[in-house]
């Protein structure tokens, strides 16, 4: 399996980088081919701006979705973005690894998503009709591939628990797992998360590395999060609201979009 | 009231910019002093990196939280970050305005948060004991001030509804409203959101502008989202888990952290 790991930490001697090396070694030991996009080392440009669309006229308004659609269709995206798209098409699996900063990904990684996820490639794909609403949420350019997050969090695990003050980690990561990975078609594996990284010692690292190695060993066989397919009949089209009667009793919010105990 | 509006769209002739101008005009008409941080116009640097910590030794490992703490304590943050912190301290209220890209803020705005929210200023503040766990979630450097989001979304409102496929908008924005605004102390007002901006016409703009003007007119009197104060007795310390019996019957996840119908 070809695996692309996109990595976002500014320090090569960080705990994050050490865990990245553990993941890469274990994936390679399992026979996978691994490529790493180390965004800081690459000097990745974070913000979407006019420079991303060299074919856009000097006086033209920059409407990001329209500019992205045109640039993808005409092959005029910048070379750095085209290279990342080529890596995504090479990869059977994508891993995003990042420290959780302010309950989200660091800006440089968000900028990788904002720039690489072109219109016509990651969104704006497929037919919109009374039968389907584009190829997204389980269908799309990256369908049939796997994706997974590796996340380091400075805070306590309990603070991210079901009743923890930060909110449950699975809900905090839903906009990424469902909104960024599942959207263009990936099967999304449960994330690997390690907490308390601000107070890590050698034993903490050894334990996290052991768990991460195990996740990498079973990577190809891990069952994905059972998100619902948008066009599979569960949602009204075009309002894309979940049909009455679906969803576990009492479930609301993000949890509705996972099949739980349904056939 | 002094209001800082942080704006993140690359096109000065965008719908976003037009709505920003509506908001600023209405706030000024109501007698408020308004400053705008237009991140693209300022050439804001998005990524946290070594250049943010000029006092960090060339060979020292960059540990972002430790470097931020030291730089804030010694007054060696970069001039651009210090200027934004000064604006936050000047402002009685903060508005973040952005287009929703991939269910989150654009990279350039995330980078404003990552860089301006220094350790000792926005986090790592206050006493940690068996009575309180720092000054955060309703307490902190920015307590007593108001904050609010202005969000433009390309998709349909129904897709962001209670059963919509994207997930409910209030949950998608929780990591920002609760995790970024409430965390350092702001009272967080309900967001202003306008949908379907990819297919806006003049009537849509007129309607959104009218609603936005009304929100700006009542800005100083709007009741904030009733998030729970971390140190008010609702949470166990130090695990910061909501005490049993609190939360509306059947509530889970993010909803637990709002007081609803409690005294």
Termini Cα gap of chain A: 29 Å
Unreliable parts of chain A: none
CATH superfamily of chain A: Flavodoxin domain
Largest sheet features of chain A: 6 strands, parallel
Task: Give me the CATH architecture of chain A, please.
Answer: 3-Layer(aba) Sandwich
The best one-word shape of chain A is: globular
Radius of gyration of chain A: 19 Å
Number of contiguous helices of chain A: 9
**Largest protein-protein interface:** A-B, 68 and 68 residues
Tell how many strands the DSSP assignment of chain A holds: 6
Average pLDDT confidence of chain A is 96
Helices and strands of chain A, in order, run as EHEHHHEHEHHEEHH
Helix content of chain A: 25-40%
Based on helices, strands and strand pairing, what is the structural class of chain A?
Answer: alpha/beta
Quaternary organisation: homodimer
CATH class of chain A: Alpha Beta
- Domains counted in the coordinates of chain A: how many? 1
Report the CATH topology name of chain A: Rossmann fold
Strand content of chain A: 5-15%
Q: Your description of this structure?
A:
The structure is a homodimer of 263-residue chains. With 263 residues, the first copy, chain A, is of the alpha/beta class. Chain A has one domain: Rossmann fold (3-Layer(aba) Sandwich), CATH 3.40.50.360. In chain A, 32% of the residues lie in helices and 12% in strands. The first copy, chain A, has nine helices and six strands. Chain A has helices spanning 15-29, 39-42, 64-73, 79-90, 107-116, 169-172, 174-182, 202-217, 230-234, and strands at residues 2-7, 33-38, 93-99, 146-152, 187-188, 192-194. In chain A, strands 1, 2, 3, 4, 5 and 6 form a six-stranded parallel beta sheet that branches. Chain A is globular and about 55 Å long.
């Amino acid at each position: 399996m070809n695996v692309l790991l996109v990595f976002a930490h500014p320090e090569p001697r960080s705990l994050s980088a050490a865990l990245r090396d553990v993941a890469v070694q274990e994936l390679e030991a399992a026979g996978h081919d691994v490529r790493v996009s180390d965004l800081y080392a690459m000097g990745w440009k974070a913000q979407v701006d006019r420079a991303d669309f060299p074919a856009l006229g000097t006086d033209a308004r920059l409407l990001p979705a329209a500019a992205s659609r045109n640039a993808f269709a005409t092959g005029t995206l910048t070379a750095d973005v085209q290279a990342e798209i080529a890596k995504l098409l090479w990869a059977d699996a994508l891993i995003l690894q990042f420290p959780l900063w302010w309950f989200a990904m660091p800006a440089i990684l968000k900028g990788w998503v904002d720039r690489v996820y072109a219109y016509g490639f990651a969104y704006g794909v497929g037919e919109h009709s009374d039968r389907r609403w584009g190829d997204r949420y389980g269908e799309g350019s990256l369908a049939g591939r796997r994706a997974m997050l590796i996340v380091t969090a400075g805070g306590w695990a309990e603070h991210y628990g079901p009743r923890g003050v930060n909110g449950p980690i699975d809900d905090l990561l839903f906009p990424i797992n469902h909104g960024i990975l599942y959207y263009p078609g990936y099967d999304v594996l449960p994330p690997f998360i390690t907490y308390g990284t601000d107070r890590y010692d050698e034993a903490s690292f050894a334990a996290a590395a052991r768990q991460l190695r195990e996740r990498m060993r079973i990577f190809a066989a891990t069952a994905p999060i059972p998100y619902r397919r948008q066009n599979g009949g569960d949602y009204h089209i075009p309002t894309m609201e979940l049909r009455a009667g679906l969803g576990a009793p009492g479930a609301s919010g993000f949890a509705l979009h996972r099949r739980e105990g349904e056939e």
